[in-house]
Amino acid sequence: MLTIHSASGASPPLTMTQLEDLLIYLNQFHQVDLTGYKRSTLMRRIRIRIQQIELENYQSYFDYLQQHPDEIKCLVDTVYINYTYFFRDPLVWQYLADQVVLQMLANTAPNDPIRVWSVGCASGEETYALAMLFIEALGVEAFQQRVQIYGTDVDSDAILQARQGRYLAHKIELVPPALQEQYFERRDDVHYWRQDLFPSIDFHVHNLIQDPPLPHIDLLVCRNLFIYFTEAAQLQALVRFYLSLEDNGFLLLGHVENLITAAERSLFTPLNRQRKVFTKVPGAHQKNPLLLCRLP
């Protein structure tokens, strides 16, 4: 591989060939598959990591990577974007509460189970926010009896953090004070999710592209993850979402994410374009070639 020296103070350059070679190396020797991420995102995040450990160029970093196996995890942690907070985009959450959740309850019998999947949950804020929506709509007892919420992420460290349900005060500042009081136990400057509500929330590691989708989901929330994926990876994820969701289920994407290609629109149709809420195209599984192949 070529060694290309950077100008003083500039980001170490990385060619597309070097990037693809690195992706092959990570996949073949460390079972780390980052090929679904946009190349521009990977370029930027890898350059950041090279600068963090103060190496001069990519070749120096690749040598370092081979000599220090622990660096694999540091690199992967740099690539993963674990940025989230409670009730991000308040108008979206208001629409969920006023329209989607109420429609979901209308679509189900009083004792039917409700399954919610929070994809790319990072440290769990969005997943716990979803729990608050359903408790407010159902009450605590019915929530505990009927609702199961799954928070998944490819980052094992993020999942461990999410399971703790532990947040500093500045992390929950967008949670209305009444909800803070109702759902969190405060100890000094730390807020802990209520212990009696933990059984209804399950956090686990899950690779959206490689692992089978969770079944019988009524509401699937995947916000601000597609912006980092290639178009092919986005379509793979959407196929899994289609198979995961019940026929009358709902899909929520991030505020800058749209389903614009013909293949994407063959799977989902917008319920509310502004709030990025979608529903399944009826009967697509009977005629859509994307859904005819069997997922692993």
TrEMBL record:
Species for this entry: Leptolyngbya boryana NIES-2135
Domain called CheR-type methyltransferase: residue spans: 7-281
EC number of this enzyme: 2.1.1.80
Catalytic activity: L-glutamyl-[protein] + S-adenosyl-L-methionine = [protein]-L-glutamate 5-O-methyl ester + S-adenosyl-L-homocysteine
Pfam family name, one: CheR_N
Keywords: Methyltransferase, S-adenosyl-L-methionine, Transferase
Protein name according to UniProt: protein-glutamate O-methyltransferase
MF (Gene Ontology): protein-glutamate O-methyltransferase activity
InterPro entries: Bact_Chemotaxis_MeTrfase (IPR050903), CheR_C (IPR022642), CheR_MeTrfase (IPR000780), CheR_N (IPR022641), CheR_N_sf (IPR036804), SAM-dependent_MTases_sf (IPR029063)
SMART domains membership: MeTrc
GO BP terms in the entry: methylation
